Amino acid sequence: MDESNLLQSLGQVSSGEAAEIFRDHLRGCVRELICEVMASEVTELCGPKHSPSGGEIFRSGSSPGRVIFEGQREDVVRPRVRERQANGSTTEVSLASYESARNPERLRFDLGGVDGRRQHTGDQERPARSAWDEQVERISPLAAGGP
Known about the structure:
By secondary structure, the chain is α+β, with helices and mostly antiparallel strands. The chain is 44% helix and 20% strand.
């Protein structure tokens, strides 16, 4: 749903329905952001699409995946990456961005440190920066404190 359709829909419904429409829109935006972050991580690992680096790490298609947002599972298409081993076999490379998005506690920290049930206090230790943190800052000027 684009922004004009969202605003039009919100203006034509009750406040309860508007809240649900807004949550659905937000959920879609978060799902899209997660997919962009994963794609960016794959590009860093493997090089640009259609121009493979020829290295030991390479793209290997995609699989259905699930992440958690607001306590609900969201389906995403998870890119797959593999690494060539010395013996000629390959192993799956875990994407830090996907693993972070699958962990609701980690995602709460990454999206601003607020949990719907409690607030994280300033004296609570924040987890170490992850690939997720770096990727979000790279593709989102607002997350990086930009305009």
